[in-house]
Fold:
Amino acid sequence: MGRYLFWLAVILFAMLVAVTDGGQNWKPVSDLFGNNAFGTLLGALIGAAGALGGSWLAHREAEKAVSRRELLAEIRSTNVAIAMASSFVNSFASTKKQHIKPLADSHKTEREQLELFFRARQHQPDLKHRLVPNLSLILPLKLSSSSLQNLFINQLSVTGRPLGAMMMLAEYSKLLDDSIAGRNDLLEEIRQGQFRSIQLAAFLHGLPGEQGRDGRYDGTITALCLYVDTCIFASRLLCEDLMLHGKLLADQAVAKHGMSRPKINRVELIDEKLEGLLPETGQFADWLRGYPNAPG
Structure:
């Protein structure tokens, strides 16, 4: 379009030169309009200019309309992604509060009591210890992140930290479910086995026993704590970054297209409601340093 307008301007300039007799003296315009060929040419040029100008304006408006539609579509997708990330935060925090934190706390208390018992038994060989472990089943969450991943791949323009948080969430939510299922399998081994109290204590806490040391259950408890904390961290960070991305899109809608400010979902991630459930940010410091300019 710009190329055509350029050549049209060149032709009009040449006509101006003709009217001014090579730029020296003005000729009566009537001399040129009296020429039928010139009048026809001028009419054609004026028509072409109008057509080109109209076409350019129509093309520009069409591009703006497409840009507006794409922007509004991304804003809607961003709001959906915010809602999904928020639901993940709530699900992981609830699982930690109801299941994993009580399990980990009781496991730690049992270990401390066992250490006291072993020390006391050195002086009292007949001392007995009553083990009451938390052997309740936990159901895997099965929170599929595939829909969220599809939004990122096909409908959102985010990169950098939000994309990294989404990939972390996808990886660790699967690891969490795998660890929950692995613990349930170990519980089945316990139910089918004939463990004496000391044997069971050794099995649960990875202590040396009659058949050596088995650290699977103790390691699984450690893994559950790590994975659920990572899922809470990733989903919460993702929610925050998506809200900021939505704000940037809304700013663009107002500044570039003169639209009324679109509504962006707001999620109140109140720390007090998650007291005792939020992981320490410091344990993710190395990961965060990989994204100094966030969000992408």
Summary: The longest strand covers residues 208-209. Residues 196 and 202 are 10 Å apart (CA to CA). The radius of gyration is 36 Å. Residues 71-289 form one domain.
